[in-house]
Amino acid sequence: MAVRDSIHKLTTMLTSNYAWIAIEDLNVKGMMSNGKLARHIADGAFSEIRRQSEYKAKMRESHVAVVSRWFPSSKTCNACGCINEFLTLADRERRWLRSKGRNETVPCEAGI
After folding, report:
1. What is the C-alpha separation between 87 and 92, in angstroms, rounded?
2. Euclidean distance between CA atoms 105 and 98, whole angstroms
3. Which of 19, 44, 82, 93 is deepest in the core (most CB within 10 A)?
């Protein structure tokens, strides 16, 4: 019961306070194959959060955008939209680069 109540409170808060909500389309089935994380992922109730967000957004005239799992959101600068193709999962500090010319990149001032 506590999980269902928390999901209702979360989705109500999101749809009440934000006009646009982006939800990433995750490969839950693939993540469930990781034995160490499977129980926690199953407890996450991702589909229920998405379902409630979508129907509450319609009631409150807000929008839910489902983002493709292949969209490079972690590599995209939130300030200017530049995509850092060189960023790897091992990188801890994001260094945003924008293309200056053919083979030259410079730091993105907006993303610093």
Report:
1. 9
2. 6
3. 82
Put simply, whether the predicted model's pTM sits higher than 0.70 gets the answer no
CA distances from 44 to 32, 67, 93 (A): 11, 18, 28
Query: What is the pLDDT of the chain when averaged over all its residues?
Result: 80
Q: Classify burial at 11, counting beta carbons within 10 Å of its beta carbon; exposed 0-12, middle 13-18, buried 19 or more.
A: buried
Handedness of CA 32, 34, 35, 37 (dihedral sign): negative
Whole-number pLDDT of residue 52: 95
> CA nearest 57: which of 88, 96, 13?
13
Where do we find the tokens 């955008």?
Answer: 65
Q: What is the biggest distance separating any 2 CA atoms in the chain, rounded to whole angstroms?
A: 57
For range 23-52, the mean pLDDT: 82
Segments making up each domain of the chain, as ranges? 2-67, 72-112
